[in-house]
Fold each of these.
Amino acid sequence: MRAWRLGDRRNGAMTLHQVELPDLAPGPGEVVLKVRATGLGARDLSIMKSAWPPAERKPWQNPPPPERIPLQDGAGEVIAVGEGVTRVKPGDRVMATHYPRFVDGAWDFDTMAHADFGDVLDGFLAEQARVPAEALVRIPECLSFEEAAPLQSSGLTPWRALTVEAGTQPGETVLTLGSGNVSVFGVQIAKSLGARVIATTSSDDKCARLRGIGADEAINYRTHPEWDREVMRLTGGRGADVVLNTIGYATLERCLLSCASNARVMHIGARPVVGAAAAPASFTQLPNLIAKCISIKGFTVGSRRMFEDFVRALEVCRIRPVIDRVFGFDEVLEAIRYYETGAKFGKIVIKVT
């Protein structure tokens, strides 16, 4: 099989190169997928440039391999199953969750964070992938492999944020930041929940596109660098009930300034996205945090159970992922360069086979 592999990464150097590897065989409880499509995200780029810190490991836990296949999103077709596998069969169209041990229930860092595709485990930038069967969710018939590829990270993350963690209610105001894959999905999901959506982005053209997928208001943060004031103006001074902060610490202070009383800030951005400013040295809005009883919640991508719930809702609400561009398997480096321009709107997908 063909695959793209990361070599020994030092000083942020990009060491991605294409290789030929033996075809895979499943072990007990595993399946082999023919990977059809994968996606490129901010976390993937950080890993490829050595900017992603490895999770703290216990003495008995293995470190990430020095070489690995990147990218956490995977959509494909089952081509072989191992001993004891009954959840899926050859020919099934499936997606894999990011953390294969996070099946249901509460997240536990020590037992779940040390098996993740694209970092510790090989990811999906290859013609085949070997995954635990318990990590798989079926692709809806209404979606292509390219449309399914972003669901695991770009769709499930805001789904968990808005439904499981924030408990977004009809009529509440949701604020999303930017026009990357998670934020765009956040607009779509928030509207399906009956919320009013205010979105920020970097151009008037992107503002129009955000309105086109459901945003009630869109703010050009280049025209309005103090965009929190626009949020307060658009809400009559009340503020947003839920804030989807996908950018990181650099925007957290303005997120707090944008909040209504009892607001919930969903903090997702662990590392700065392309073009983001540096985080402030200190925060001055702690009084606002306390006086308005604002909650800040950090979290990781959802479980397989949450993923299954999200896929059912997606089918009922007829939500279709927004794909910016689809690149071929031999165009991976071009896809990375395009991602780094910051021009994308939605998800960058790589068609594998």
Note: The chain has eleven helices and 15 strands.
Amino acid sequence: MIDTVTYRHPEALASPQWLADHLDNPSVRVVDARFNIRATAEGALEAVAERDAYGEAHIPGAVFVDVMADLADPDDPVVVLPPDRFEALMGHLGIGDDSTVVVYDDKGGTWAARLWWALRYYGHEAVKLLDGGFTRWQAEGRPTEQQVPEPSPAVFTARVRPELRVDADQVTAAIGCEDISIVDALPEVFFTGVARLYPGHRAGHIATAHNVPAPAHVDPATQTLLPATELARLWEPVGLEPEHRVITYCGGGVFGAFALFALYVMGHENAALYDASWMEWGADPNRPVETGPRASMHDRDQPTEPRRQ
């Protein structure tokens, strides 16, 4: 039984009203991070940044970021930009050390959270997700524009917080640890191995992982974050305790970042992102992989034995 709980960090969410009240504040920088996954004519999945949608209409003053391409290290695309390049990108976007950043998408924040995490990883705490995103903003009849802003360059100083990120070796060491939970934030169809996320990668999930899909945190009708009590119920199978460490991952560090966001809002900060996620793990035949629903929250009452690959 879960008692009624409240958000421990409600300030991580910006309501549309809060943002509307602060749009003219020069210290507030708004970032459009809309992204989509589409099926190609051949039936494959294609990742697409919504630059065209941004050009048609966006929140006044918002700049655009491709959370996959712009935030990826050109020399090692499975991980986030290194400090110097991240500083340059933020400065170009007009995001400085004194900025309050509000990031949004139209998928409940599940894509925008990649930038939320990256900013916090580089020591910038003043970052929020727009609750309900562009979907709610438009539904409330709030203003949009087509004009692309030209922000003044800013100075951003990266201060790495290594506790917010782990690599493959650290994940491997966490497998089987009673005080560490590995959480897969992808939809269940990829977790169980019924479908392959990447055609050239193995199917399944990291051995012993739980499944808490990122989209499950969001009300599908309003695109807002679920109430705290429902979030706590969603995470109950993971067995969160204050001293319990959580490592999240997904396909490329996006949905996993949103899982971290949900944990942060709930007040569980002993958590880190496996940044390279399945892009790295699923391509390495030496890393242990399981298929099946054993650790999935959907089948926790009658677990089945997973298959190792």
Note: The longest strand covers residues 28-32.
